[in-house]
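re: the backbone from monday

yeah here it is again, tokenized this time
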């Protein structure tokens, strides 16, 4: 049952503010450095043939931050899409956004949809950005869409018929990395992380590099995933029991 490979990594990118403070700079400086980290990690994942990377970029709770920081983050999203989408497309990366996108302005939405549409046939890394995303929102939104779709037709709800309504289709993350010391999920993909291996590091997001990524992957490769079952060598015959 040991994993042969790792195909999907998710990351809670935390610590931009503390990194900026450590450098005697405003928080915006840390968020800009965080974008460079995204580039490094995307390239490193591509080289390591990771198939999917899901980044928690803006949570549904991040609107509680001061107005100037929210405005800055939204303009940074726009700027980064303008700057990096062509390069990502050239590298055969498929870009996908998940979250409650309806709350973003039409200018940002246009850029999001253009990036998704330009890269939709790319086959290297699938790069998901979770923005205005919350795990509880995802589950409730899926329930509502399932009800509206009338697809149940008298049947009961099961994981199999429910999952297609969640915002992220396909594989769940094998490994979740959270940077900057806190050990919590912060409402990030509560359903999809049910059996994900968790890795926490004190490294602040702007300091992340290939070595840090490799430490996380090494941790994952050492774990035995059992999905609630037991390992074969633990199975004893009924007579021994
Ligand atoms: C956490 O650090 C970081 C964020 C809430 C924002 C992360 C977003 C980016 C790096 C930009 C994403 C870009 C795109 C293109 C979607 P923090 O501010 O919570 O740091 P702190 O805990 O040290 O204060």
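seq for it, each position gets an aa:
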């Amino acid at each position: 049952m040991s994993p042969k490979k790792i195909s999907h990594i998710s990351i809670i990118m935390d610590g931009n503010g503390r990194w900026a403070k450590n450098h005697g700079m405003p928080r915006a400086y840390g968020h800009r450095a965080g974008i460079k980290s995204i580039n490094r990690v995307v390239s490193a994942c591509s080289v390591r043939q990771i198939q999917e990377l899901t980044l928690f970029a803006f949570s549904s709770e991040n609107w509680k931050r001061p107005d100037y920081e929210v405005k800055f983050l939204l303009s940074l999203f726009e700027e980064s899409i303008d700057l990096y989408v062509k390069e990502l497309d050239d590298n055969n990366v498929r870009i996908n956004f998940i979250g409650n996108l309806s709350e973003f302005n039409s200018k940002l939405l246009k850029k999001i949809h253009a990036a998704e549409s330009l890269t939709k046939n790319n086959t290297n890394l699938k790069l998901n950005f979770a923005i205005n995303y919350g795990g509880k929102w995802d589950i409730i939104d899926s329930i509502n869409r399932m009800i509206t779709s009338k697809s149940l037709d008298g049947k009961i709800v099961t994981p199999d018929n429910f999952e297609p309504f969640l915002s992220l289709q396909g594989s769940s993350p094998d490994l979740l990395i959270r940077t900057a010391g806190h050990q919590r999920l912060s409402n990030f993909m509560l359903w999809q992380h049910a059996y994900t291996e968790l890795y926490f590091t004190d490294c602040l997001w702007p300091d992340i590099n290939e070595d840090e990524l490799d430490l996380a992957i090494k941790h994952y490769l050492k774990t035995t995933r059992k999905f609630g079952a037991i390992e074969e060598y633990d199975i004893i015959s009924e007579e021994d029991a």
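Residues 13-18, 31, 34-35, 57, 62, 76-77, 80, 129, 131, 180 surround farnesyl diphosphate (CB under 6 Å). The first strand starts at residue 8 and ends at 12.
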